[in-house]
Amino acid sequence: MEVKTFISAYLDSIGRYVDAYGLDAACFSKGVHGGIERMFTGDSAATNYEKFWEGFSNTFPLSGDKIGSYQDIELLCMSYYEEKFDEVRSVAHPHPLAHDIVRAVREKGYRTAIATNPLFPRTATYHRLAWAGLDPNDFEFVTTYEDHRHVKPTKGYYQEVLSRLGVRGEECLMVGNDTREDLAAVQCGTGFFLVTPYLLDHDHVDVSAFDQGTLEDLFAFVEAMPVAR
Q1: Of 29, 58, 99, 208, which has the maximum CB count within 10 A?
Q2: CA distances from 28 to 59, 71, 107, 133, 212 (A)
Q3: How do 191-195 and 173-176 pair as beta strands?
Q4: Which of 107, 31, 86 is CA-nearest to residue 62?
Q5: Which element (helix H / strand E) includes 193?
């Protein structure tokens, strides 16, 4: 999934949805951007959920017409994710090996978690997993904005993930395609496998020291891993 294409399709889709309920789509989009920007602040006292709606409310003033409160807007968004979010799945292209890789890891006795940037609510993130052909029940947890106080690429985010798993970084392998957001996990001592066909390399990072390759290579890497004790 190309991130910019996804964001554009998502904002178009939810914009049409809220417009039908009397909200200005362009102003709503600004509110979403305001919420996202708020989540990227360093404040760790609030959850990303709380930060998002604070940033949204600071950017999207209520008109007092058809939607009376920000709670009403949140409920409207939740309805959107259940009713219309799946129309955005056309920009996602699932890889047939994704499920096989997760299955192989679990069959070897390893614990699994989805460490995605917690910018979306749980319901939206679970939909995105389904687009990839994955089942949330195959993972101990999935990071969402309700449960986390940090975002990638901060060290604090990965510390939260490790804390929830109750493990040290040295016991984990992070798999990702983004040399800024995903590679940041190694600050906490994790191993790293870089998926190169979908590479996002914003900073031209030297990745020669890390395991890397296609999803076929990752599958072979997983198959060669020892059984977990």
Answers
A1: 29
A2: 9, 14, 44, 30, 40
A3: parallel
A4: 31
A5: strand 191-195
SS3 190: coil
- State whether residue 149 is helix, strand or coil: coil
Q: What is the average per-residue pLDDT within 140-159? A: 97
Q: Which 8-state DSSP code applies to residue 99?
A: H
- Dist CA 101 CA 111 (whole Å): 13
Tokens standing for 35? 């919420």
- Beta bridge partner(s), residue 142: 114
DSSP secondary structure string, 69-137? Answer: -HHHHHHHHHHHHHHTGGGGGGG----THHHHHHHHHHHTT----B---S-S-HHHHHHHHHHTT--GG
CB 32: neighbour CB atoms within 10 A? 20
pLDDT at residue 79, as a whole number: 98
Considering the entire predicted model, what is its pTM? 0.93
Burial (Cβ within 10 Å: 0-12, 13-18, ≥19) of residue 65: exposed
- Rounded Cα–Cα distance for residues 121 and 53 (Å): 12
* Partners of residue 191 on adjacent β-strands: 173
N-term to C-term CA, the chain: 35
Q: Mean of the pLDDT values across residues 129-149?
A: 96
130 residue type, one letter: A
